[in-house]
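notes to self, project folder thing:

trying the whole complex as one job this time. last attempt i did each chain seperately and stitching them together was a nightmare. four parts in total, labels are on each line so i dont mix them up again. if this works i'll redo the older ones the same way
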Amino acid sequence: MKNSNENVYKIVSLNEVAEKAGVSIATVSRVMNENPKVHPETRLKVQKVIKELKYQPNRVAKRLRNRNASSNLLGVVIPDIQNPFYVEVFRGIEDVAYENQYALIMCNFSQDEKKEKLYLDILQSESIDGMIVAPTDERDQKVIDLVKKGLPIVCVDRGLIGVDVDEVVVENRNGAFSAVDHLARSGYQRIAYISGLPQIPSSRQREQGYREALAAHGLPLDQDLIRYGDSRHESGVKLCEELLDLPKPPDAIFTGNNLITLGALETIHKRGLHIPRDVAIIGFDDMYWSISLNPPLTAVRQPAYEIGKRAAEQLIMRINDPTRPTVSMILKTELMLRSSC
Amino acid sequence: MKNSNENVYKIVSLNEVAEKAGVSIATVSRVMNENPKVHPETRLKVQKVIKELKYQPNRVAKRLRNRNASSNLLGVVIPDIQNPFYVEVFRGIEDVAYENQYALIMCNFSQDEKKEKLYLDILQSESIDGMIVAPTDERDQKVIDLVKKGLPIVCVDRGLIGVDVDEVVVENRNGAFSAVDHLARSGYQRIAYISGLPQIPSSRQREQGYREALAAHGLPLDQDLIRYGDSRHESGVKLCEELLDLPKPPDAIFTGNNLITLGALETIHKRGLHIPRDVAIIGFDDMYWSISLNPPLTAVRQPAYEIGKRAAEQLIMRINDPTRPTVSMILKTELMLRSSC
DNA sequence: TTGAAAGCGCTAACAT
DNA sequence: ATGTTAGCGCTTTCAA
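result (full assembly):
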């Protein structure tokens, strides 16, 4: 199990091109970088050899050499690639990065803090130009340190406390409020909330909105009706079971994210319960297939693609001008009315 | 919009550690790499400074220097991150990579060949140890060249023609056959097929299975009932519309992948049609929320996580032993019976 | 046990 | 217009 790397598959370097073209490596480099100070004839000659040899510049060498110029590499650190919300965010980032000639290193830490730390370290030592990250919590020391060090960073979905950083987030409290408000207006009385990981700021903000909406409608707050999970499908399944097993089960459930919603739906369907007659449900996060769910899901839509896009734009602007004042973009959510409540 | 990189956020290098510890950089390097030939006292002294300075080795320099040793970096090139199937595959790869101390560069080309080429180039010039890729088609020249060059590669989901390469795929023909066979047995007569991108081998293999199943049941082949899309949600929507608008619409639809299934469902629901009474549907690719769809979806399940896991294992084995004979792993699919047909 | 130095592929400053 | 060279941070002989 050694590094038996007689493997060394051949790489064409500047040197080879230079030799074959009968010029210096500097000239080849100039041709590659479209430096105008090259004699047209020389340029042609060199370009020919480049083609022949299929020369491709080595990004690693470039990055090392240019430690303080642009490497055109961005890092993306997201909590859960299985959550379609983050996939959508990633798509937004990707499109902007592609347009601006940035390559991306995408790291998924699956809500695992240890993994997150590892990836953060790796990214840092890859000499990236900047990164977009959804920190585990708002006191994520590793990310805070990176910001303080001066690495261009934009936070998405979740902010950071005690440090000035660009962020693109969503009106979680309002979104949750509108959801629970809608439930209450529709006459539901025992409204439950299944939360994602409570250390995630958005989870708490959504809980806040939930509480405020109950209060606004004079509905009592029953601690039994609030359940804390880990933001994943399985916890949606399990916590929904707990809720339904309650002596006085809820008549409606507000689920804290995508995956939890899907988990809760699974439980409800397994029990043969009817939505919304037996239990109503409203989810945070819309999915493009919400209409095909049983029944079509009413949900709070976050503009995920937009979040990613804006974040990437912010990041690139910051990279180009590290001194610009930080901005905090707060996007609106939208209540998608369908028939699950 | 220049590279105004006075940005240069500080990086601690071997040099600094060496200086502060009063040893040579070679010694620090030895300590970092747990080389036993260091005096215990020296080791301690150096380790202390490393901690103090929070020194982190620069992966870029390491890769450049060790062009022919291991870089512990793998590339993953997938066609569509919005397809939950690939996300699942990616998760499998990720877990294995993590266990084996490999970092991952993930590239999503969104079924865009130009993007795929770009990413392939980037990966190559990042001096990765190897990569896992789902090529656009089986004559993907770029990937073939890379294989020929000797870069360790494992193909997933789709193979390559004319070159010896490790691959992990699925029994597409069989899977499709079982789906359509099930439809026919259930009495459906006009069975349509919505295909993904026809240049993708799996699309054609699934069509093959479809045709064989029709033949096996003595059902006529109606070219009108075969539609070719681009493997994405939108084409599922559109092609399903076309199908339903036919003078003699199908009584059942076999959808070529995940996203197409979701698109077709959307169309059917928008038209207020009942599944399976008005049209039945069976999908290639299962989703963990299939049970929560309306109605619970009958589908051909691919062991996606397993595919990724096996592929990553193959790749690491190949990296460790480039001379090992190539293998072609063909995993089985499973028909998940629910109530959409 | 430790250090000096070469060199990975590249860019940019400087020299010609 | 072109070439020479230093150096990015690291590992690895080779010498001491």
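what i see at first glance: The first helix of chain B runs from residue 14 to 21.
need to look closer tmrw
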